[in-house]
Amino acid sequence: MSHADALENELKNINALIEKHKDKIKSLQRREQELKLKIQEVKIHNTSRHIRGCGKIMYGSEHQAKIAMRQINSQLIDENKKLIRIYFCSECNAHHLTSK
Asked: Model confidence over 41-83: pLDDT tens digits?
């Protein structure tokens, strides 16, 4: 078998694996995007928000939450994850963002 044949065979094997695990790959890519967004969200205005109380990221004011929402949405690839609303949480006395 020539070197080119061996490389073509390896490429076929890789393509077969990709096809076999296509659904898992898509799921992992979605999770990767979610994690990247969460990391970005945590980095934006990190000094003005905390996670405690109800367990969600807290914004001290509606204005801070609006700024964060604009920045996060500008980096979104998946339109279904777009943040659309800010709400006040009486449990932790802070504002949160939601895509619902």
From this structure: 776 655 445 666 677 888 888 998 999 888 888 877 777 778 8
The rounded percent of the chain whose pLDDT value lies above 90 is 33
Amino acid at 44: I
pTM as predicted: 0.50
DSSP symbols for 17-79 = HHHHTHHHHHHHHHHHHHHHHHHHHHHTTGGGEEE-TTSSEEESSHHHHHHHHHHHHHT-S-G
What is the distance between the alpha carbons of residues 17 and 30, in angstroms, rounded to a whole number?
19
Residue from 30, 83, 24, 20 nearest 56 by CA: 83
Residues of the domain holding 37: 3-98
Q: Which residues 6+ apart lie within 8 Å of 51 measured at CB?
A: 57, 58
- Name the domain count of the chain: 1
Specify the residue for token string 């969600």.
56
